[in-house]
Amino acid sequence: MSESFPGDRSIKKISPVGPEFKAEQKRRAKEMKNRVYGSQILVHHRGTILAEKMPAELREMIKGNYEKYLNREAAKLDTGFKHFLSSQNSRIRSAAVGFIHRGLWGALGPENVRPALQVVSVVDRIKSGKSLAPPIWVRIVQGNELVISQLQKTVQKEFPAVRTAFRESLPEFLADYHISEPVVRTVTKRLTGTQVRVVDGLSARVEAIGGFYSPGTHTIFVAAHYVNENTKQQLTEIEEHELFHAISGRLVYEEATTERSELDDIQSTFTSHDDGRIGLHFMPPYFLDNNTQRFRWLNEAVTERLRIEYAKKRNSPLTYNTYLNEQKILEFLCKKGKREIPFEIFVRAYLEDYKPAVRKADSIIREWRHLRSTLNESFTPQFLVSLDNRIKQIGVEKVLMELEGRASER
Ligand SMILES: [Zn+2]
């Protein structure tokens, strides 16, 4: 199936196990292997510093666009930062501040400055909209990078054991959900090559749980403030949550862009790949007009429920439980319709890869279709889509309240 778009762009859905995609994934993973993720938090300020050091002439030339870019980045940084500082979860708040503290101590320690004072001044200055002197930011960035690269070594040493335990118990765990042999083989194989990177949790895009999985590079990112002796158990749990994302089924878009040079009439085509679906989270190609992602909440609910059931089966401790409202909506879908829907129907759709149809009669995403029609019968047609739209409008928590209100009226 392929569609055409104006501007010589074409898009095709491909299987995530095909050789083209695998080659690209490998290339991307290699590319990021030596990257250090210590400076995202301060990248804007570093940008300012660079701008200040630029020759005045060059600065004048790029002024308009560059300033627009800096303002946008500053707004993003402030929002991200304030979110952490105003977090109701004191553990996140103190870990976040503690992390700046550590970065600062690494950068400024030798100068006989009490780190606590430094932390306060950084936080206060950012909150009041002031900025720090460029040389201080440079040293914070350097200190942060140093800290992150050390934490990276720790995680890299410990992660393989978590992954091995996960791989070994997966077949028996998935048997509970009646997952077919070939699917178990495919998803178990997918664990090979999963890598882990430490990121600055203050500014990186991490999930509520403290990590995220990047399908394009097959990499699990974990927030730096969970890498320490006291949070070992949490770190393992974050990694397990992300490992479920890593094995989940997917669809990939292959985009081909053709450009024709007016000068010599030479035509060249560039190919790139984009994630179309990961688990139950659907993402349209980024250049489509109706750029609406769907069912992220459902994807997280299924991921977190799987992680919890996995821990229970292994008698492992559970210190975390995130996406609570999302999980309650999932529970509602299972229990409160016209008939009970077993969780395994969700799990089978979650693990399903897109496969191009060989024959016309073949269903491409059979398990997903089955889940959708089961939900339609149990509730009303298009129930899941209306739920998704409502969540986008008013948020998960309010939707849950509406659903619970409706259930008690019955
Ligand atoms: Zn997640």
Beta strand %? 5-15%
Number of strands: 8
Number of helices: 14
- Strand arrangement, major sheet: 1-2-6-7-8
How many distinct folded domains? 2
What order do the helices and strands follow?
EEHHHHHHHEEEHEEEHHHHHH
Structural class, from secondary structure content?
alpha+beta
Largest sheet: 5 strands, antiparallel
- What does the radius of gyration come to? 24 Å
Helix amount:
55-70%
Show unreliable segments: 1-6, 39-70, 73-82, 91-121
Defining traits:
410 residues, three-stranded mixed sheet, 56% helix, alpha+beta, disordered N terminus
Written account of the structure:
Helix 4 packs across helix 5 (115-127) and helix 11 runs antiparallel to helix 12. The protein folds into 2 domains: 17-247, no CATH class; 279-405, no CATH class. The strands form 2 sheets. It has a 5-stranded antiparallel sheet with strand order 1-2-6-7-8. The chain has a 3-stranded mixed sheet with strand order 3-5-4. The chain is globular and about 70 Å long. It contains 14 helices and 8 strands. The chain is α+β, with helices and mostly antiparallel strands. Strand 4 (211-214) and strand 5 (219-223) form a beta hairpin. Residues 207, 241, 245, 300, 303 line the site of zinc ion.
